[in-house]
Amino acid sequence: MDNKPNPNKKSTFQFILPYLIIIAIVILLVVTLGGGLNKQSRTYTARGMINELQTIDPENVKSITVSQQEMVIEVSGVIVVDGEQVSFTSTIPNYYEGEFFPAIEKFGTTVTIENAFATNIWTSLLTYIIPIGIILLVGLFFLSKMNKGGANQQAFDFAKSPVKNIQNSKVKFKDVAGCDEEKAEMVELVDYLKNPAKFSAMGAKIPKGVILKGSPGTGKTLLAKAVAGEANVPFLSISGSDFVEMFVGVGASRVRDMFKKAKSLAPCILFIDEIDAVGRQRGSGIGGGHDEREQTLNQLLVDMDGFDDNTGVLVIAATNRPDVLDPALLRPGRFDRQIIVDLPDRAGREAILKVHARNKKIDKDVSFANLAARTPGFSGAELANVLNEAAILAVRKNAATITTEDLDEAVDRVIGGPAKKSRIITPKEKELVAYHESGHALVGLKLANAMKVQKVTIIPRGNAGGYVLMTPSDDRQLSTKAELLERIAGLLAGRVSEEIFFKDVTTGASDDIAKATKIARAMVTELGMSSLGPIQYEQQQGSVFLGRDYANTQRMVSSEVAYEIDKEIQKIMNESHDRAYKVISENKKQLENIAKALLDKEVLTNEEVVYIVDNGHLPVKEEPKPLETPEVVAKQEVPTEDEKID
């Protein structure tokens, strides 16, 4: 049994102790100065007091105290009235003393005469000490409450860095998938943290800092934790936004405190997430030399490559906005190594799915290779979300395992949100959506360089009435001009289908037109894929303090060339529109078959769309034959009596 004192009980006693002292003092004052707790008290006038003393029976007088002063006589005491003790007081002028003193002679020893001019040192001291003591006790009480983790302590802790210290990180390299090249770069960092003498003997210096660049969700933080887990060193984590405060100098102070803590724990990893919050480019005309962010950045630069030696402290930073970082932060000597953590390819996506499927019950028929092919452009975080959504769907259905249908629905949820099956759609609108999406699917199948159709649906999701999931046939970094033109034709195919079958257009193609126009403009102004030649007419730029979102395009052209650019964009759009029009016009029957199947089934897979295009209808499912029971088999095998006779 643990006999240690309970700290909570001690703190409770300390909390109520001042109140107990104050209550005791108040009671003592009341009893001492009030002459006891009596039920009744009376105050007499001078004449009334003399009359009372002249008429009262001496047996009813308990005590009388007389204090003669310069001008008056103070009288107090206790008498018995109707069987109860009553305290009385009176002030009698000195000119009544001729009547007063003869009236009290009959009471003998019950009368006490005090010298009003004699002083009692203890009474005088108590008169001053008690009020001062009460004030001091109350003041000390409130000071103790404030100092107990309160405002004073917080004031001293304000300049300290809120860095989180994670000991014994459980994340290992086996928990990170889809970035084998990036992991290879980090392995030698683990080797350095375990055995730095091997590098020193060769005269090699490990990078002071490693910055991880990549899209959100690609696993930058996970990689840093894996390095700490493999090296078994402390992992100090902080966000760039933790440095920035409204008070100038606080951020710089936190940077100094952060490196001080890191040095005391060396060897260790110091991870700064979202470093662009504090490391944005300086000298852009916004903010002066005393700007809080700039001072914080300057201190960070000094601590990483200043006068102090940070041996044993490996700084790893992560950002998805490397374009806004200050060049001084990225130079060798600070962040010596820059690693780009890109979106995973198909093999990487399959490996990531298998990692996140370890603790989930997956059906044996699920193919992670097929799921990886359906999710190009997905980050590791999005793939983890797909599996989590699929697991939630399986629980919702009370299923034993996660099936392929659950994963397909999870992918759709991540792309467009949950299906809005309750949305009321008129038959006419549903038919329009079916023909619109069928146009995308048909052109995607007929054009050789177009993306592969994976799924077609007319179930509303988000703001879309339906969509076609189209993915590249393989993972590529480059796109040809022919592929871009056919991609534009595929985007415009929905609008073209509306024109051909309904002789009208709807607002459903607004997003398709926006995407197609963006591709066409990039082909003309940035990629040099037009008759204007390989010239860059527009350059992406913007203020780093505005996130490069405002005024993000600089046109370096004259008005005449701008007119030619507009003509080229219009030409690409018109030619792609005509191409889609030709494909659909030549295959109207096939598009109608796809649209009818969509209206009937609402969701079509790639295999079903291809079958409809080739055969004109959906695959016919064969009805399963009834199983023969043992009784039927036995009955067929046992011969009848007639058969025996024959």
Set out the fold topology.
Elements lengths: L6 H28 L5 E5 L1 H10 L5 E8 L3 E10 L2 E10 L3 H8 L6 E5 L5 H27 L3 H7 L6 E3 L13 H15 L1 H7 L6 E5 L6 H12 L3 E5 L10 H15 L3 E6 L18 H14 L7 E7 L7 H4 L6 E4 L5 H11 L11 H7 L5 H17 L7 H13 L10 H20 L5 E6 L9 E5 L9 H22 L7 H16 L12 E3 L12 E3 L3 H28 L1 H14 L1 E3 H10 L14 H8 L3 H5 L1
Parallel strand pairs: 1-4, 2-5, 7-10, 7-11, 8-9, 9-10
Antiparallel strand pairs: 2-3, 3-4, 6-8, 12-13, 12-16, 14-15
Helix pairs in contact: 1-4, 6-7, 6-8, 9-10, 12-13, 12-14, 14-15, 16-17, 16-20, 17-18, 17-19, 18-19, 20-21
CATH class (first level) name of the largest domain = Mainly Alpha
Strand segment tally: 16
Regions with pLDDT < 50 over 5+ consecutive residues? Answer: 1-10, 286-290, 542-552, 632-646
- Class per helix and strand makeup: alpha/beta
Looking at how many chains there are and whether they match, the oligomeric state comes to single chain
Q: How many DSSP H or I helices?
A: 23
The CATH topology of the largest domain: Methane Monooxygenase Hydroxylase, Chain G, domain 1
- The end-to-end distance, rounded to whole angstroms, is 94 Å
Which strands sit side by side, in order, in the main sheet? 6-8-9-10-7-11
- The helical percent reads 40-55%
| Radius of gyration using CA atoms only | 45 Å
Strand content: 5-15%
Instruction: Spell out the CATH superfamily of the largest domain.
Output: Peptidase M41
**Which sheet architecture does the biggest sheet show?**
6 strands, mixed
What is the domain tally?
A: 4
